[in-house]
Amino acid sequence: MRARPIATFLAGMWLASVLAFLPGAVRATSAVPPKAHAFNPHTPATAVHTEFVVEVNGKGQVTRVRSGKSCPDLAFNAMTYGNALQAFIRTPDGHAIPGVYRLSYDYSPKTKTVARSVELIHAGGVDPNRMGAVDEMAAVNARHHGPPASPTPAASALPDFKAITGHRH
Q: Are 103 and 75 contacting, i.e. CB atoms less than 8 angstroms apart?
C-alpha cells in the first residue's frame, strides 16, 4: 500500500513539471512577442527612516553592521541594510578613517528620494585591516561555488565597436 501514495506523488510532480514548461513552449512558438513590463519598484507610502551603526576598515569599507533601527517597511529595511553593507565611507579628499559610523536613510514620499547621511561616532576601536563585508561575502561565495568565471571572450579580443555596428561616431 506504500507504493500508491508515492506513485500519486510522482505523477503529480510529472504533471506539474509539464505544466510549468508548457506556457514557455507555447509563447516560443507564438508569432506575437510577449508584452514588455516596466520595472515598478516598491516605494513606501509614508516617510520612513532607518539607521545603522557600522564598523569601517582602513580602506573605507564597511566590515560589519553593529546595530540598526528599522522602520515598518520591510522592503526599505532590506534595501538600506544592503546599501549599508556595500558602503565605502571616506573623507571628501578620499582618505579613510577607520572607526564606527552611523548611516541614516530617510525616504520622502513627496520627492520619492532617499537621503543618506554619514556621521562619525568615533575613530578607531575597529580592526583597520579587517576584510570588507562585501569581500567576505564574495570569498564565501567563491568557496561554495568556485571562483568567478573569466569573461569570454577577453576584453582585448573584442572587435572594434565601430566595425561591428557601422557607426561612424
A: no
Residue 167 lies in a domain: no
pLDDT tens digits along 96-112: 999 999 999 999 999 99
Q: Cis check for the bond before 128: say yes or no (omega within 30 of 0).
A: no
Start-end of H helices in the chain: 3-29, 74-86, 133-145, 161-165
CA 165 to chain CA centroid, nearest Å: 32
φ, ψ of residue 154 to 5 degrees: the values are: -60, 145
Q: Provide the residue count of the chain.
A: 169
Q: Give CA 5 to chain center in angstroms.
A: 42
Domain span including residue 120: 48-145
Any idea what DSSP says for residue 94? Answer: S
Rounded to two decimals, what is the model's pTM?
0.65
Do 106 and 47 form a contact (C-beta atoms < 8 A)?
A: yes
The sign of the torsion formed by the CA atoms of 73, 66, 138, 89 equals positive
Give the number of domains in the chain: 1
